[in-house]
Amino acid sequence: MIKKKLKCKGKYDIRKTAPFFALLLPSLIMLILFIIRRIYPFGDRSFLFSDMYHQYMPFFSELLHKVRGGESLNFSFNVGIGSNFLALFVYYLASPFHIFSLLVPESHLMEFMSYLIVLKIGLAGLTAYIYLRKHSVSQNARGWQSGLNALCPTEDSCFGALLFSCFYALSGFMAAYNYNIMWVDCVVLLPLVVLGLERLVKEGRCGLYCVMLALSIFTNYYLSIMICIFLVLYFILLLVTERGGLRSIGHFVFFSLLAGGMAAILLIPEVCAILKTDFGDMDFPKKVESYFSVLDMLARHCMCVTTERGLDHWPNIFCGSAVLILIPMYLMNKSISVREKFCRMTLAGFLLLSFGTNILDFIWHGLNYPDSLPARQSFIYIFLVLVMCYDAWRYLRNADEQQIVYGCLCAAVFVLFCEKFIDHEDFELGVKVLTLVFAGIYGILLYLYRTRESRNVHRAVAVTALAVVIAECGINTFATSVGTVSRSAYLGQQADYRALYEMTKEQEQGVYRLEKFTRKTKNDGTLTGYPTASVFSSTLNSYVMDMYKRLGMRHSKVYYGFDGATALTSAMLNVKYMFGESEKYENGLYTLAGQSGDICLYQCNAVLPFGYVAPTGFDLPEEEGIQGLRLQNRMVKDLGIDGALFVKCERSVSGDDIVFTAKKEGYYYGILTASGTGKVDYLGGSTEEEKFIDLKKGSILYLGYLEEGRKITLTNGNEEDTTPEISVDVYRMDEEVLGEVLELLSAQYMENVEWGSDWLTGTLTLENAGRLICSIPYEDGW
């Protein structure tokens, strides 16, 4: 075979600098947006959005505390009431990039995470560029057999790869989920994994595929599930288009298993942990359901469509307005085989169908439905679509002018169809206008590039196209992404919390926990570094969540929280201190014990020692339908104590609100008795005004201490609720019964308790047989 080395005339060779720009341009666009958003050090804002705010920053902080403190990574008392930290590490923190966080001062950990995302977005552009260049080299260069080229074939290929790599790095998926720092790694690695698979089939070289797939699984096993499903489908596509044989099948199976085995050191413990979460319960759909039409999904290709992060299933698939022209051109181009076009379009159609079909959605997400953040595999669809668009670009010289015109007409008709048939609030007039404008510009540039033979015209078109791509990606990301919070508000009081926690350590020796009346994040204990009773994590122990649910406390598939705890449940969880941002919470249950800055520390007066002993057989009642305050009354009865701990009181209804006047002083709780109300505002109590959120039927509301004659009002806190009526029953706690319960459970308990990051010791001497209860969730390994 004769090889020719193509040489290009001119002073500037884009081939030498294109990889650098593929890395630089997406990162630079993000950096400019950071400056516009005034993200630190350009202002007092921070790129802590959604889960990055509630989960990733706290988890990184806990990892930093553990490593610098020489603690075990197996377990943490600061994650909920105790949690498997290794499982959390694998799910959220296992990226090799994250090891550099250990070199960063804790005060700038937030910036490390934010700018690491900027770097990873640039790396996604680089790996996409590498794939597209290698992909084009491995294809038959039929696109360059005729016509005068102002750019050399390889230069043209480099330039196209640069443009489409930018679309990949700043796609709709990245706009929606770029704050998911552990997901971005898989977006970075996907092009290299696919490149490795193509080499495995076409050349019999398996090393790149095996190593990159193993790294992907190691980095984030969850998105790697979706990548593995895609690899099976793409391998079948390659077998058809490249006519692979049994040897390729053997290599694919063996090296896929080897990649999984290489990552097994983290994969196996993670699987064991996931089986103890709600995600381990795989309830396969009983019937096929469709979420929306194909046109509804395709319309998400439009520019500046609001990203979906909720429960509405919409995929985030924007990857440039040029797609609307280039995909029709791809189908019309005769230089691309019909077999290849059919296979790739079929696979893209299947991926698109997966977004809107419940069973396929369930399978793609690891035999579970996502708890918000839908269509998490959409980056794979985007990658496949951009590869087809790149092929249309590569074979542009073999396309006639009419194909470009037809492509533009297809784009215009598509937008008009969206205007006519789609009435979703996300598709405003500006969305359609911007999409048409940018598609029109791309159409003009493609036409000029194809019909003009002047080198200067081609270079001018190339520079203009690059500027347009940068502008479109920047505008779309600015309009749909990069949410911020106040940096000083997020970090400002951490020193006060730590100082007060250190003060409690001087007073306490055994296992105890601290909680908050009002919380900043759903993982405050992890963020600051103190033992807590709340956690928001996909790896939480579902048995603890079920217990919180039955006790009337806050819960979801990925969260259990202390809010909704009564004096009894607080004592049973060994919560001995509470943080508050004012002195208004002091009463007979809570005594002000210290203050640092604006943060007050309260000591709980209703407490139990760690490792208390209950009568033999004592447990949560198993009777169906009993939960919350009624369940706790049954628990008291099972202890052999007469009288109810919580006594139901009369309340009245005023319009949509609940009005209650205390006939006797004491501590009062409410319980939500109907579904549909997620927020409740509380007016007139001893704490003046409170807002309860994340509510479900059965949720308990702490109403505080009410004097005789005090009138309170409970109202729907959601102004957008079309059914504002709420249903809440009010109960008064009997302090004498509470005292009897605490005295009974405190009679025998573990003494001389010492504890560390993943161990505890103590001595227990019993006069009467009973059941030892430690407020630590059981998991294999203890």
UniProtKB/TrEMBL annotation:
InterPro entries: Uncharacterised_YfhO (IPR018580)
Keywords: Membrane, Transmembrane, Transmembrane helix
Keyword Transmembrane applies: yes
Keyword Ribosomal protein assigned: no
Transmembrane segments: 20-40, 112-132, 182-201, 221-240, 252-276, 313-333, 345-367, 379-396, 403-423, 429-448, 460-479
Protein name listed in UniProt: Bacterial membrane protein YfhO
Organism: Acetatifactor muris
Taxonomy of the source species: Bacteria, Bacillati, Bacillota, Clostridia, Lachnospirales
